[in-house]
Amino acid sequence: MGLGIVFSTMLKVDLGDLERQQALRVEGRIEVEDGLFAGCSFVLENPLNVVLDATWAGSGELVVRGGLKGAVLQDCRRCLGQVERLVDIDITLLFVPPDLLEEDDSETYRLEVGVREIDLGPPLCDELILAIPAFAECSVDCRGLCAGCGENLNEAECKCSPRGMDPRWDALRALENK
């Protein structure tokens, strides 16, 4: 059983090559400008490196295992500063023929009959989105932004006058000063 290696920016498994070689390694990158993650709570800082091994399992199922490494940038949910998050996730993707796919199974992907190539981009995108927490914090003691003037309280003191604040918060401010 040989292991063919394919390096590409297009992360695809050629099923013909896989049948001939029994196993196939797909190495590639997801580029920053790729657009797979448009609208997500993060952006790619650099290309993500991908190394995957594809093999056939019983009953015509395709198993793709490997990893995804790189870094993403998110906005801190308190101060809106940039937070770098390192990505190093293990991935297992299962592609199943339609006749074996259960309707409520959300963890497998459909392997269409007659298809000669599988695009791994969308499933990898799904896996990365699930692995990255939706909310990032630059530190556990981040003070955030002032609700009155918008000053980043990690960098400077607020310029707001306490008298200009909503009086409904006076009871809480009194507790804070104790």
Description:
The structure is a single chain. The chain has helices at 15-21, 121-131, 170-176, and strands spanning 3-8, 12-14, 23-30, 43-44, 48-56, 62-75, 82-96, 109-110, 117-119. With 178 residues, the protein is α+β, with helices and mostly antiparallel strands. Strands 1, 3, 4, 5, 6, 7 and 8 form a seven-stranded mixed sheet that branches. A two-stranded antiparallel sheet has the order 2-9. The chain has two domains: 3-131, no CATH class; 143-178, no CATH class. Helices cover 14% and strands 35% of the residues.
Counting H and I runs of at least 4 residues, what is the number of helices?
A: 3
- Domain module tally: 2
Taken in chain order, the helices and strands follow as: EEHEEEEEEEHH
Report how far the terminal alpha carbons are from each other.
72 Å
- The backbone outline, from C-alpha atoms, is elongated
Rg for CA atoms? 24 Å
